[in-house]
């Protein structure tokens, strides 16, 4: 069931999203080569808790950390650990904050030091995919127009659109209906309504879109080992556009 949020609920989601945004800016200011992914997670957990919020990922279906930290060929759901960030890596940090009964959710892919131009391009285009997707988004837009825009832009660069994961609604739960795929046919799917709160999150690989999940049951990597990037914001659909809550 797709839930249209009240003004009051959107206020509360806005506060959680503000914390998510600030946490990502804090991570961006600290993340560097030589740091372990576990240290990134510690930054995230400390920051979110200092805002009086709970890091929603921690314990979600048994996920053991406060952030998903996904390096290079890891697409999403990287479990923070001993892996050390190296010059030239790209690292996606995906996190959620829960406060006053509502979640916010966003992800960024950070470049560590000198990243090869073609990999940097992947990171930039993944971000562009998000903005292409919201360009014409407003009440009445068919849901799959989002995926159509992401897929068209990513594939025009020869990239792969990850199919195994999607964006989603958000609110009292971290994942609510509808599912928001990054592929699809223009003009199809439900019509979006003002007050729907969605996470739009392109996950794009430089090569093949196929992924496999490691034995830890979380870490999702590209089958061909090509790097992948992730960019996500929580937004609210308005009559005449969207408001991005995590930017
Ligand atoms: N924040 C992720 C999303 O974009 C969900 C992470 S799964 C978790 O939907 F287990 F790590 F929480
Ligand atoms: Co999400």
What does this structure look like?
The protein is α+β, with helices and mostly antiparallel strands. It has one domain (7-244): Alpha-Beta Complex (Creatine Amidinohydrolase), CATH 3.90.230.10. 28% of the residues lie in helices and 27% in strands. The protein contains 4 helices and 15 strands. The chain has helices spanning 7-30, 37-50, 117-134, 144-156, and strands at residues 54-55, 67-71, 74-76, 90-99, 102-111, 160-161, 167-169, 176-180, 197-200, 203-205, 211-213, 220-222, 228-230, 233-238, 241-244. Strands 8-7-9-14-15 form a 5-stranded antiparallel sheet. Strands 1, 2, 4 and 5 form a 4-stranded antiparallel sheet that branches. It has a 3-stranded antiparallel sheet with strand order 3-12-11, with no helix packed on it. Strand 14 (233-238) and strand 15 (241-244) form a beta hairpin. The longest helix has 24 residues, at 7-30. The site of 2-amino-4-trifluoromethylsulfanyl-butyric acid has 12 residues, from strand 4. 2-amino-4-trifluoromethylsulfanyl-butyric acid is lined by residues 57, 60-61, 63, 68, 77, 94, 96, 105, 199, 201, 232.
Short description:
This protein has 247 residues and is an alpha+beta fold.
What is the count of DSSP helices, taking H or I runs of 4+ residues? 4
Number of domains: 1
Helical proportion? 25-40%
Order of strands across the biggest sheet? 8-7-9-14-15
The CATH architecture would be: Alpha-Beta Complex
β-strand amount? 25-35%
